[in-house]
Every structure is written in C-alpha cells, then in structure tokens.
Amino acid sequence: MKKVSSGAEKAEELTRKKTTTKTTKKSAVKSDGKTKNTTAKKPVEKTEKVKKVKKAKKPMSEKKLAKQKARKAKKLEMAKIKAEKKQKRLEKRLAAKQKRLEKLAAFKEKRAERKEKRRERRDMLKHETKQARAKRIASERKAKIDARNAKRKAAAAERQAKREHRLKVRAEKRANRKERQHAPGFGGWLAAVIALGVTTLALGTMMTFGWMNMNGMEAEMAGVHTQSVYELNSIVDNLDTELSKARVSNSSAEQIRILNEIAIDSEMAEIILERLPVETQLTQNMTSFVNKMGDSAQSMLNTLARGGKLSASQKATLGYMYETNSQMKSIINDLTANASPKDMMKAWKGKDGNLISVSFGNLENTTVETPKEINDGPFAENIKKVTAKNIEALEEINATKAEELAKQYFKDYNVSEVRCTGETVANQLVCYNVSLKTNDGEMFAQLTKKGGKVVMFDSYKDCSQNNFSVERCIDIAEDFLDSLGFDDMKPVWTSENGTTCNLNFVYENDGVIYYPDMIKVKVCEERGIVTGMEGLAYCLNHTERSAGEASISKASAKEKLNPDFTVEGSRLTVIPLDGEEVLAYEFYGNYGENDYYIYVDAKTGDEVQVLTVIGTKQGKALM
User: Fold this and answer.
1) pTM above 0.70?
2) Residue 414 and residue 441 in contact, taking contact as beta carbons nearer than 8 Å
3) End-to-end distance of the chain based on CA atoms, in angstroms?
4) Partners of 434 in the β-ladder
5) In the Cβ-directed half-sphere of 550, how many Cα atoms lie within 13 Å?
C-alpha cells in the first residue's frame, strides 16, 4: 500500500469528523420532529373552525352587475380616448418636427445656392473684362427698367379697369337718383340730358341723309366719335355751371354736393377724351387737366368731410379750374356747332388739317395750369438739361483715380476701404459707383467719369437725438460742399424732423440765385455730420453764364401781385420754365393761412409761376 503523508492523513480525519457531525444533527432533527408536528397542528384546526363559521357571500344583483359592467366599459372608453389623444399629440409633434426639419433643409439649400451664386459672381467679376462688365451692367439695368415698366403698365391697366367700373356704377346711380328726384335744382341737368338727346337725334338724321354713300363700318365709327364729342360738350357745360357755383358757395353741405358732381364729371370727361379720334399729344394736357381737376375736387371733399373749410389756396384752385374750363367750353361749343360729317371722317382716318384736330390743338395752346404745390423747396425736382457742359470738358479718369478721389473727399469719415464697383449712367452722365467702408458702416458715392466730381453720396448713420441746431447744420453742410469743390452755394430751404436736417443749396452769382444749379444735403442732428448729398441737377445744369439785366424794378414787379398777398421776402432769381431759364423776381409770403412763392418775369412783368407751400411746420424758406 501506498503511504499517505501526514498532511493527507489530517485531511481525511477532518472529513470523517464533518460527516459524523452532519449525521448526528439529522438524527436529532428526526427525534424532535414528533413534538413539533403535534404543536403545529393546533393553529391549523383553529383556522378550519374560522372558515366554517364565516358566512357565504350573497350573489350580486343584476343592477349591480350592470353598473359594474358600465364602469368597466367607461374605463375602457376613457382609456381608448386617452390613447387616441396621446397618439394625436405624438403625431402632431412628429409633423412639427418634420416641418422644422424640412424648413431647415430648405434654408440650408437656399443658403448653399446663394453661396454658390456669390462664388460664381466673384469668379465672373474676377475674370470679366471692362467692356464685358459695362455691357452686363447695361443689360441688367435694361432688364430692371423693362420689368418696372411692365409692372407699371399692368398697374395702370388695373387702375383704369377699376376706374371705368367705378364710373359706370356711379353713372347708373346718378341716373337712378335723377329719375327719382325732380326738384327745381335738377332742372339744368334734365335740360342738358334733353339737349344731348335732341342733338344725338339731329346727328342721327344728319348721318342718315349725308352719309348714304359711306361704308357701314365707317358710318358706325364716325357716329360713335361724333356722339363722344357731343357728350364731352355736355359734360364741359355741366362743369362750367358747377365750377361757377363752387366759387361763390360758402355752405359746406352745398360745396360737398357740387364737388361730388365735379369729381364724377371730370372722370367721365377723361374717359371720353381717351376714345376720341385725335392724336394723344393733342389731348394730353387736357386729359391731365381734367385728371387734376378730379383729384383737386376729391382733396377738397376730404377737407370738408373732416369738418374743415376750403383754404384760400383751394379757392384759388377753383378759380383756375373755372377759367380753364371756360376756354374748353368755348372751343368745344364751336366745334360741335361747326363740325361736319366730313370733318369727323377726316379725324377718324387721321388726315391732317381736320377741324377736330385743329380745335383740340387750339385748346392745348390755351390751357391754364393750376397752382403747383411744393413741400421740399422751390424747383427741388428740376432737372433741365441732358448734357453737362462743364463736366464734358473735363479730363476722363479711371476707376483707380476715382477710388483715390473718394478717399480724399471723405477722409473725415475714417474710411478703411474704398472699392469701385462699376459704372452707371444718369441722364447721359457716366459715373463710377464707389463703395466706402468705415468703422461704423458702409457708404456709397457716385463720381463723374469725367473730372471725378461727386454726383451723390449716401450713408446710414443712427440719428435719434437733436444735438445740433438748424443753423449749425447749415454751417456743417456749407463746409462739406466747400470740401467737395462746390463754391458760391447759398441755402434757400430747410426742413427737419428733430433728428435729421434736409437743406437745399443753389448757386449764387452777382446777387442772383440759380435754381437750376441745386444741391440737396442731409445732416444728422445727433452726430453733426453730413449723411447724404444729391447734386445731379447741379452737375447737369451748372455753367458760367450771365442772367442778363432786369427790365423792371422789384417795386414794379411787386405791384403786379395780389394786393391781399403779404410779402415776407423777395430776391432776383433764375428759374426753369418750359425748358428755358427765366430771370424772375421771387416773392415769398402768405395769403390767408397758406404760404406761397410767386415769380414775376423780370423782363416782361408777367406773373409766370405760383407755388403753394405745404408742410410748413417741417419746412421753411431761407431768404
């Protein structure tokens, strides 16, 4: 046998001891099991007794069962509704999330497209020649102008259609109203309608016997045009009566009634003029007059509707309209009395020398214009010439020189970068477009290609306070113009809104101011700097010239004015009039509650221009 080491012997001995101990414990448990079992049976017996004592449950009634079923059904329904609502909320959130994702994707796509377009444009500009750039700019400008013109034409056509519909409705309403009312005040209208009917009947008789040899189409067209002339004659007669009443009426109610009739008749006259067989240039001024007459009547109606009264300016406008309409009435009455069917046929066929065209030509030559209104100074919108004599004689500069000049002109603005972005043409004046970058934003300027003169300048500066007075703004603007080389400039008009001061400067020589040579300047009243300037009129019109000598004195010219007109200032000026420059005395003052500029020709003594000042709270003259 194999000998076991002492360690192994010990292990075997321990194992034997453990086995003996477990056997002893099991036997002890078995010996005690009877006692434990006998004691454990007693509570079991008690439990069984309790169960025997407990009464059996009564069966649930049908009513309770129905209620229980109803509660369960209601719980199931509520759970279903709750689940549906939860599902809808979830679907709504998912749809909103999807919408946001789609919107974000579209935005990123557009941004990528814009980025790609900018990159393509940079590459194109980088490799584009000067001639190609000029050609591209011209084509882009033409496309913009064509699109703008097309939009305007569409808008004009829409307005015309709306106007015709409105006039038709008004005419129908007025006809219905006149049928219902037969008061004495409407006798004139009834007489006009009857006269028009008799005239149309006579015209029909004349056409029957005089135009037998005509083609049916020609006879029909001539009849339509002849009827239009007679309708125009009737309307002009009505306007003559209405305007004469409006001049003397002092009752707001009566003025409203009369002005309503003037507005309607002027619109009807405009429609008739557009369908007459006469060249457009012969009816252009007359159409413009009746259009202004309708607008003026509507403006007066608005004044009366607000509870106000007609001003002296508006009453003067009524006088001008009455005088012009009287001339129209005289000529159109003669036309309807003397025009023959042959004259109408000649006009319709466009033959020269026909009585219709001659009569309307005479009418255009005698038309009187109503007073013009201004709110930003006399002749502020005037651009007379199309070639700049002074600038055309100067040396042409290149884009690099234009950038250098721009940096020099605007050195006080802390310019960090100057870049020429192309060329543009304004009234046949070729200019460089220059972009300037400063510490607080960008500026834009245009310099003439010949001479490098500043035509315009614009920038955005935050102006929210009034730190500089109007007088100080004038000094700032004068220094700015001097720095640009514009000498002998005199301020003639100022307007300000509390944060920005707008000034009009004109050229002065030998005590005479030249309105055609005007520059507009904008000054920020918070910073005390010029933020904008527009001098196209000056660049186009300015040249050294003599105004000539006045043939009459200022005192004699003053005698030509209305004696009720209060003169506050006067001076000798050169004004643009019908494409020419006229030496005239300027008188500034007021009549009633309105301010006026009145100009008297310094050679003939005729009153040649009347300007009504509106918005005097913001603007004022500097005499």
Assistant:
1) no
2) no
3) 147
4) 420, 445
5) 21
